[in-house]
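4.2 Preliminary Data

To establish feasibility before requesting continued support, the project team ran the inverse folding procedure on a target of 152 residues. The structure was first converted into the token representation described in Section 3, and no sequence information of any kind was made available to the design step. The complete token record follows.
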């Protein structure tokens, strides 16, 4: 049996007590979605939500690159927009919203739009539900788990 390796979270990442991920409550968790040992995104606490975004370099997903680190884009095609309590990250001249997060309170944030398909991952959702490939994850509660959804 292969050992599960929990990914190391970046320095300065402090998870919200509750992160609503496309209709799913993730309470006292650390990593919303993990693909093997890689983390596609993180939403951390701050004056506004602080987002880290990673993407696979090629199909198969062995090597990944950082796309956004602490709300700073590392790619010319990715734009981070911040307003009052909302952070949005868009790709391809704002054609696609990759992730949009609202801070609801000091301890709670909500991902209301998510579309990682422009980054090569078939993961997307909105306030109504989360879709991973052909699977839907709707209105669940995940509490005190390191990772909400893991794909190994």
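Position-by-position output of the design step:
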């Amino acid at each position: 049996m292969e050992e599960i390796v929990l990914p190391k979270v970046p320095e300065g990442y402090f998870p919200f007590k509750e992160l609503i991920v496309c209709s799913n409550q993730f309470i006292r968790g650390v990593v919303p979605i993990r693909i093997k040992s890689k983390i596609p995104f993180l939403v951390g606490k701050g004056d506004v939500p602080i987002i880290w975004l990673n993407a696979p370099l090629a199909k198969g997903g062995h090597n990944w690159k950082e796309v956004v680190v602490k709300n700073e884009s590392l790619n010319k095609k990715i734009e981070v927009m911040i307003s009052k309590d909302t952070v949005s990250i868009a790709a391809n001249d704002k054609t696609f919203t990759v992730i949009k997060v609202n801070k609801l309170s000091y301890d709670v944030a909500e991902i209301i739009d998510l579309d990682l398909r422009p980054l090569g991952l078939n993961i997307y959702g909105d306030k109504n539900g989360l879709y991973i490939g052909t699977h839907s994850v709707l209105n669940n509660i995940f509490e005190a788990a390191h990772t909400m959804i893991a794909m190994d």
